[in-house]
Amino acid sequence: MLNRKMLSALGGLLAALPAFAYESSYNMTQGVTDISREVHGLHMTVFWVCVAIAVAVFGVMIYSIITFRKSKGAVADQTMLHSTKVEIIWTVIPVLILVFLAVPAAKTLVRMEDTRNADISIKITGYQWKWGYEYLGTGVSFYSTLASTSNEARQLHSGIDPNSVKDYLLEVDHPVVVPVDAKVRLLLTGNDVIHSWWVPDFAVKKDAIPGFINEAWFKAEKIGHYTGQCTELCGRDHGFMPIAVDVVSQEDYAKWLAAQQEAVKAAAAPAATTAANTAASASATL
Amino acid sequence: MSDNDANHDPVASRRKARRLALVLGLVAIALYVGFILMSVLQASH
Amino acid sequence: MAHADTHDHHDHDHKPAGIGRWLFATNHKDIGTMYLLWALFMFFLGGAMALGIRLELFKPGMQWFDPGFYNSLVTNHALIMIFGAVMPAWVGLANWMIPLQVGAPDMALPRMNNYSFWILPFAFTLLLSSFFTAGGAPAGGWTLYPPLSLQAGDSFPLTIFAIHMMGISSIMGAINVIVTIMNMRAPGMTLLKLPLFCWTWLITAYLLIAVMPVLAGAVTMLLTDHYFGTSFFNPAGGGDPVMFQHIFWFFGHPEVYILILPAFGIVSEIIPAFSRKPLFGYDAMVYATASIAFLSFIVWAHHMFTVGMPLAGQTFFMMSTMLIAIPTGVKVFNWTATMWKGSLSFEPPMLFALAFLFLFTIGGFSGLMLAIAPADFQYQDTYFVVAHFHYVLVPGAVFGIMAGVYYWLPKWTGHMYNMTLAKWHFWVSTISVNVLFFPQHFLGLAGMPRRIPDYSTQFTDWNMVSSVGGFVFGFSQLLFVVLIWQCARGGAKATDKVWDGMMTGLEWTVASPAPYHSFTEAPDLTGVADSHH
After folding, report:
1. Structural domain boundaries of chain A?
2. Which of A106, A162, A231 faces C61 most closely, judged by CB atoms?
3. Using 50, 70 and 90 to split pLDDT, how confident is the model at C12?
4. Which of C252, C44, C305 is nearest to C144 (CA)?
5. Residue C134 main-chain phi, psi, to 5 deg
6. CATH level 2 (architecture), domain C31-509
7. How far is A99 from chain C (nearest CA, A)?
8. A17 SS3 class
9. What are phi and psi of C256, to 5 degrees?
10. Can chain B be said to touch chain C, i.e. do they have 3 or more Cβ pairs within 8 angstroms?
11. What 3-state class would DSSP assign to C296?
12. In whole angstroms, how large is the CA radius of gyration of chain A?
């Protein structure tokens, strides 16, 4: 626990140094979950560790290139063949740095894998090329495909300027709706080939593999509209099966779910009538 | 390190080279067959 | 009289005449030359595909290609660059230089050497002919993940057999390298006197023999899944698609080091030569290379953090991957220490070696970031990964090859090349390669997945920058071709030593150009001290 606090404090401190680090067109999003902020903290920590090493190593290289030039009369020290002392130093220091990085990373990993005590569970199925969502235990399920505006614009020689399309390639017809501050467990599988479900703001990326059920979870802390994309090459339209998630208040979620369940019932009722009619006419013919 | 393994006698070292090449080739074939067999076993479980 | 003299001189070389010299080549220099020219040709073919990719990605919207064809470009760009350009270039350099460096008259098995080269044109003809089959060329990525790769049309068996042939070619090349180094060294050329290019290639060759059969096995099983009703990887029949990924990356990660280790060797020779100072920590370099090779067998699943491995597996692969930073760090520190208190000059091979040193290290940093499993969930399959592996492969492996070519070209042709042109090639390539790949880090972090033909509009700016860099980099490689062409045809006479540096290898003791048959009598190095102990 202490380590996690230290890590996020350190990550936050380092991340705060350059203002641009938060600008989303350069850097990883901090996201809207506890885990996503922790992952961002890890990312920034290892980034700054790399920068520090780079400054040191590149500094020595550049110094050597400037100072030890033949054209400036530098004479090579032919006796400098190796030194056990410095070799030990530059093996041990990286080991310490790696331990410093690995411990918090392993802790975050443990938390990411803990899918227990979920409030709701959604089964996600990857299809070529759309996503299927099933809210387990509620009877609600639907497909989510690329919005038609984006789909028209993305055709070869469509003549439509992508900049004129709202959320080009990131908008879907039926976004996933989840309540804020609820632990949402995802069960992922693939119907045909391997897909991968990624929403950067939740720091969730998990493969949807035919014949397997993978688990992941997130707990969004901020109401909003979040998008992501399929991140495993899945064929021709791999680039055109986005993910959109609406995080709404608990009340709005309850309302949405009720409305969906009503729609399911309404759809089932006429279907049942039709089935009965067909059966009746069939027996009449007999 | 001694240089016993270095090339003092060209004919002998070519013969040794051919023998080593044969061994390495067999290792490669064994790995190929072995990996497939391993997968067959894995799949039949 | 003069005529007779010249005749005698030519007779000494016994060069076979005409096309037969190349078709039935058994001379390591001829075969090396063919490998290198083949690699250059493939570099441009794979590069043309890359420019197709960068063209389509220049701005959002689909302007040029069908998404399926775009996927074929991505897939074949990778296969061609890996198996057609970088690996044959290394085998070409090995062919040319290893016999010269160990003091052998030729490679140990010259006829097998011929087969291993001549398989390649057939393999790539098969692969490329798939562009004309029903369903088009393979489009499931070079990683060939099932079930997607099993959806391929008639291209599928062509791809599989092409990969089998490339594998056989590499294994034969690797066997030749190992037996040449193990058995053909001149008297007194002990293993710890070997130039590092030989050492890194020796270790690379063992890696090749260990993993190419694994790839061959994996693609054979794909073939039987597709055509003979087996279900190794096909989930429809109860197969396990993740098993394929494990097998593929058990090959794939050592393969990554196969592409880069010989570059470590070349840089380890060029930096001391132009620092006029022996390599710092020669033994440590050899052990670090061996450690990297060993670790490459136990890190494969870091390519698959998102497949849903058990926690213990993820933790193990995260830790083992991080360990690679240690021997790699030792190498970078040793190169830096070699320059320290040296007497540096900046001939073209040194320039490329220095660019390698800086830019490969950047690729190493992003590699360390990718090793952190929780963060990898955000990086996996985005342009951050694309940026990472292109940094280690282009200014890494490809610059390593170019450094080697610039280092040894005068030894091959007997002529010095145009230094001004070489420096232009260096500076334009080095600047443009960064313009090309550095923004891809930003794209990946900002959320752009890889292997997509079109993207959301917020990614436009960096994609444009990257495409501009790509076109400049691509066309600047024509300077390299012009330079090689000019150098082959003429130029100032190169001395035996070629460079005014600390030239320690045996290759600098023979004439420039190196005689057709070198070391018909083995040089004796018994009792001769090496420069690095």
Report:
1. 2-112, 120-267
2. A162
3. low
4. C252
5. -60, 130
6. Up-down Bundle (1.20)
7. 9
8. coil
9. -60, -40
10. yes
11. coil
12. 27
Give me chain A's average pLDDT, please: 88
Name the minimum distance, in Å, from the CA of C125 to any CA of chain A.
24
Q: Which of A64, A79, A192 to mutate to test the interface with C (most CBs of C within 10 A)?
A: A64
Q: How many CA atoms lie within 13 A of C444 on its CB side?
A: 26
Answer whether A2-112 and A120-267 agree in fold: no
DSSP letter assigned to residue C83? I
- Which band of pLDDT confidence, cut at 50, 70 and 90, is reported for residue A273? low
Residue A62 in tokens: 């550049």
CB C258 within 8 A of CB C292: no
Is C209 within 8 Å of A162 (Cβ atoms)?
no
Residue at token pair 């990624």: A198
Question: What is Dmax (Cα atoms) for chain C?
Answer: 82
The 3-class SS string of C212-258 reads HHHHHHHHHHHHHHHHCCCCCCCHHHCCCHHHHHHHHHHHHHHHHHH
**What pLDDT is stored for residue A7 in this prediction?**
54
What pLDDT, on the 0 to 100 scale, is given for residue A3? 55
- Identify the DSSP state of C515: P
State the ipTM, two decimals. 0.91
Residue A156 has a CB neighbour count (10 Å cut-off) of: 14
Matching residue, tokens 């290019």: C197
Going by beta carbons, is chain B in contact with chain A, meaning 3 or more pairs sit under 8 Å apart? no
Residue C169 annotated in active site: yes
Note the CATH number of domain A2-112.
1.10.287
Give C64→chain A minimum CA distance, Å: 7
Nearest to C274, CA basis, from A58, A62, A74, A82: A74
Is the model's pTM score more than 0.95?
no
Q: Looking at chain B, how many residues does it have? A: 45
DSSP per residue, C172-226: HHHHHHHHHHHH-PPTT--GGGS-HHHHHHHHHHHHHHHHHHHHHHHHHHHHHHH
Q: Which residue has the tokens 């660019």?
A: C355
Domain spanning A120-267 has what CATH number? 2.60.40.420
Residue C213 token pair: 């059969």
- Scan for tokens 């989303």, then name that residue: A24
